[in-house]
Amino acid sequence: MATPRLTQQDMTEAEQRELKTLLDRARIAHGRTLTNGETNQVKREYIDKLMEQREADAKKARKLKKQQAYKPDAEATFSWSANTSTRGRR
Predict the structure, then answer these.
(1) What is residue 34's DSSP assignment?
(2) How far from the centroid of its chain's Cα atoms is residue 43's Cα?
(3) In Å, what is the CA distance from 64 to each residue of 57, 60, 68, 71?
(4) What pTM does this model have?
(5) DSSP track, the chain
(6) Tell me: the pLDDT tens digits for 32-58?
(7) pLDDT at 78
(8) Integer distance in angstroms from the first to the last C-alpha of the chain?
C-alpha cells in the first residue's frame, strides 16, 4: 500500500521551517537564487526523507499496538455467567 506523496500543506510548521532553511542553505551555497529545478530537487529530497521517517514511525506504532493487543488467556475456562446478561432476554 503506497502512501500518497506528502505536500507542503501536509507538513507541520516545524517541517516547513526546516524545508525553508534547507532552501536558504542551498541558495547560499550556490551564491545565487535557485532555479525551479534546483528548488524542486531540494524539496523532493526533503519530502522523501520525511516520508521515510513517518513510515518508520508508523511501523513502530503498529508493532507496539500489536504487542499491546488484548490476548485472551488460553488457560482460563469458559464462564457462562460472564457471557450472559443478568436480565435475560427481552
Answers:
(1) P
(2) 18
(3) 11, 6, 6, 14
(4) 0.69
(5) -PPPPP-GGGS-HHHHHHHHHHHHHHHHHHTSPPPHHHHHHHHHHHHHHHHHHHHHHHHHHHHHHHHTS----TTSPP-HHHHS-SS---
(6) 999 999 999 999 999 999 999 999 999
(7) 65
(8) 46
Residue 26 near residue 38, CB atoms below 8 Å: yes
Q: Residue 45: which of 6, 83, 9 has the closest Cα?
A: 6
Percent of the chain predicted with pLDDT > 70 = 80
Chain center to CA of 77: 40
- The residue with cell 432476554 is 89
The answer to whether the CB of 15 falls within 8 A of the CB of 50 is: yes
Alpha-carbon span 41 to 27, nearest angstrom: 12
Q: In which residue are the cell numbers 537564487 written?
A: 33
Q: What is the pLDDT of residue 18?
A: 96
Hey, what's the cell of 62?
Answer: 503498529
